[in-house]
Amino acid sequence: MLIRYCLLTFWAVIVSGCTAVTDEVRETVEYAFKEQQDAELTPEEIKDFPYTAMYAQWEGFPRTLIVLGFIDNPGERHFVTAEKETLVIRNGRVIRTQDLRQNLLATSNLSQDPLQCIITQPAKCKTSWQRDYDYQFEEQTLSRTVNSQFYVQEEQTLDLPFGEVDVTLIEEKGRFKLTGETFINRFWVESDGHVVKSEQQLFPGEVTLTLTQVTWIGRDYSNKVAK
Residue ranges of the chain with pLDDT lower than 50? Predict the structure, then answer.
């Protein structure tokens, strides 16, 4: 399980170009990290929050706040914690993790992931995908082949922490080839392909991880009103 995410004293070091962390933001994050409750920022706190951040929640565990540490390779965003735990996200999908209890070590064939084109270029985008996962489970390193089929579902207005956003729901129905275990991942995607929320199973036997955008530096949501 991901634990206590990203104290701002750590963020200020790893996020290049950040301004000094104010007392108000420190107090906001300390409030969000209180024990035995879900992390939650108020609309006012979200408006003033100076970092890209998401809520992360493993099924059955409290919701926590994670923050973008850095970007490497085209579009691979590293969301990190004070304990140096990492989720690497590309096109809204978690493709690697580090320093968790169990880790996703690698995902192959990422250039063919339909999430990168299924909304923006549907006529040219394949809706099936095969890839291999390497993951760590109980001190063993295992590999699995996964086949997925993608389906464009209905358009929705999604109520997010920063306000309402028009999205399209994408469902990925997948099967782990060796075990036969099936899963459904869901991605809520804006018209330009940006994923604002997802529900993902990272590897066999793992519970679902829900990621929900809280802030995203560089995207204009000034006309959105949080409820």
Answer: 1-22, 25, 36
User: Phi first, then psi: what are they for 190, rounded to 5°?
Assistant: -75, 170
CA distances from 47 to 38, 164, 215, 221 (A): 19, 14, 8, 10
Nearest 5 degrees, angle CA 110-CA 216-CA 77? 30
**What's the pTM?**
0.85
CA distance 71 to 179: 34
What lies within 8 Å, CB to CB, of 219 at 6+ separation is: 194
Name the one residue in this structure whose structure tokens are 């890839």. Answer: 131
- Distance (Å) of CA 140 to CA 94, 102, 155, 179, 206: 20, 10, 41, 16, 15
209-215/53-58 β-pairing: antiparallel
Query: CA–CA separation, 166 vs 6, rounded Å?
Result: 29
* Rounded Cα gap, residues 142 and 105, in angstroms: 9
Token representation of residue 187: 């991605």
